[in-house]
Amino acid sequence: MKPSPTVTRIGVLSDTHGNLPLMRAVVAMMLDKFRVDAIYHLGDNYADSAELETHHLRVLNVPGLYCQEYTSHLIPKKIWDHVGGLAIVMAHARQDLTDDDTAKADVILCGHTHAYEALRRGKRLFVNPGHLKAETHKDRPATFGIVEIADGKAHAKILNLEGNVVTEA
């Protein structure tokens, strides 16, 4: 009998804009319901992600365009990670990634637009988790993402505040 694959679950959130109560509620769901192994925060506000460190998980974060850290040369605007044999690149906005970044990555994570998205283009998975600025912002509901990686493949789900899937790829 073939052993079950090891699954790594990454919680992905973006554009919290200082709404720590909403971020806390989503992180609690990520931990309790989805059992995430890591959390990636895609910016706006960079300082919000400091609270994630208290959960003793692996946390990666990048600053958003409206954060003072975005202009710092000490804090990277994009971060690379490797999980389960896949290359992941994350940035707040798509403009912070080069075509070369996109060509080399298996999973591309960006926020900024507040519009959720999970789609495949060829072998690449593109994910925008949406926003956690408010329960609704500019007629867009608050959403977050879960990326699951197993057997060298990635699957993404975008979920609403009730934990229901609104789209996946």
Describe the protein.
It is a single chain. The protein is mainly beta and 169 residues long. The protein has one domain (8-168): Metallo-dependent phosphatases (Purple Acid Phosphatase, chain A, domain 2, 4-Layer Sandwich), CATH 3.60.21. It is 11% helix and 38% strand. It is built from two helices and 13 strands. The protein has helices at residues 20-32, 99-104, and strands spanning 8-13, 38-41, 58-61, 78-83, 86-91, 107-110, 117-121, 124-128, 136-137, 140-141, 143-150, 153-160, 165-168. The strands form three sheets. Strands 3-2-1-11-12-13 form a six-stranded mixed beta sheet, covered by helices on one side. A five-stranded mixed beta sheet has the order 4-5-6-8-7. The model has no long low-confidence stretch (mean pLDDT 95).
Largest sheet: 6 strands, mixed
Order of helices and strands: EHEEEEHEEEEEEEE
Shape label: globular
Strand content: 35-45%
Helix-strand category: mainly beta
Number of strand elements: 13
Determine the number of helices (DSSP H or I, runs of at least 4 residues).
Answer: 2
Oligomer category = single chain
What's the alpha carbon Rg, rounded to whole Å? 15 Å
How many structurally independent domains? 1
Indicate the CATH architecture: 4-Layer Sandwich
Mean pLDDT: 95
What is the CATH top level name?
Alpha Beta
The CATH topology annotation reads as Purple Acid Phosphatase, chain A, domain 2
Strand arrangement in the largest pleated sheet: 3-2-1-11-12-13
Low-confidence stretches: none
